[in-house]
Every structure is written in C-alpha cells, then in structure tokens.
Amino acid sequence: MKTIRLKAPNYTNFSDCLRHHAEEMPDALAYRFLLDGGNNEATLSFAELDQAARATAVSLLQTAAAATA
C-alpha cells in the first residue's frame, strides 16, 4: 500500500490561515458560540469570520493613525 503525504500549508500567522480557509471553504462552520447556557447558538462561517477580522483590522489601523496624527 502506497502512503500519500500531503504537505500542510505553511502559515506565518492566524490571518493567513483564516484567509486560506475563507477562500477554500467559505461557507464551512468556523465557530459555534453557545449562548444562554447552551440553549441558543450563533455561528460564523470562515467567510464571515474573515470579513469580521478584516473590518476589525481596518478599524484598529484607523484608530492608530488618528492617535498618531
């Protein structure tokens, strides 16, 4: 039997990993948050998480730029 070895992507940071997953499987479940003691839940796909992370990064950059101006 032949063994197949797959090379894992070499991410340099979490952002790269998230972006890869958002591109390869955008609708896949990334996180499931249990609310109210676990009776209700909220979910995020990789695409939604990537979009939220990018929006947060822009906001942080804008705040930092305003603070140094």
TrEMBL record:
<dbReference type="InterPro" id="IPR042099">
    <property type="entry name" value="ANL_N_sf"/>
</dbReference>
<protein>
    <recommendedName>
        <fullName>AMP-dependent synthetase/ligase domain-containing protein</fullName>
    </recommendedName>
</protein>
